[in-house]
């Protein structure tokens, strides 16, 4: 009973404060599921069937790169098992792995965001940046004394970045397929 109450309060604060991309967003996604989170965004942005099909196509195009990223720790594990070098060689191996991972993540992010910008209308893109916050919400201020207002969205778009995007893509694919299927029925 207490868990249900806490979950309900968390969901209510999440929806009312537009905190989808803030730190509470990923935690709440764990409670409601990333596929449900994707469905919230699909419905919130009022995507047309054509937009959903285009987004599904974009996601399917990016899945092989995502799979490469997911396979990287296993490759590193194999390389570390075979490793027989010295400290400098290990440092080079880890540096190369980190650089390769960052490049692949950057490529995935850029392709997804650029593709998304080509699919969404300006109004939808602005709504995505705004989150579930009300229209006309003003930029928020840094808590540092005397700081200038930060001109950025009132939430971080962490769900479109890095490993969060890697985890989110399969759920987005499933949500889009399910949503399109319900539109046909």
Topology:
Blueprint: H1 2-17, H2 24-32, H3 34-44, H4 49-82, H5 87-119, H6 122-130, H7 162-184
Helix pairs in contact: 1-2, 3-7, 4-5, 4-7, 5-7
In total, how many domains does the architecture comprise? 1
The general outline is elongated
Name the helix and strand elements from N-terminus to C-terminus, one letter apiece.
Answer: HHHHHHH
Give the overall pLDDT as a whole number: 77
Distance between the termini: 36 Å
Strand percentage: under 5%
Largest sheet: none
Unreliable sequence segments: 1-24, 137-156
Structural class: mainly alpha
User: How many strands appear in the DSSP assignment?
Assistant: 0
Radius of gyration over C-alpha positions, nearest whole angstrom: 20 Å
Fraction of residues in helix: over 70%
- Tally the helices: what do you get? 7
How would you explain this protein's 3D organization?
The chain has 7 helices and no strands. It is an all-alpha fold. It has one domain.
Structure summary:
This protein has 185 residues and is mostly helical. The chain has helices at 2-17, 24-32, 34-44, 49-82, 87-119, 122-130, 162-184. It contains 7 helices and no strands.
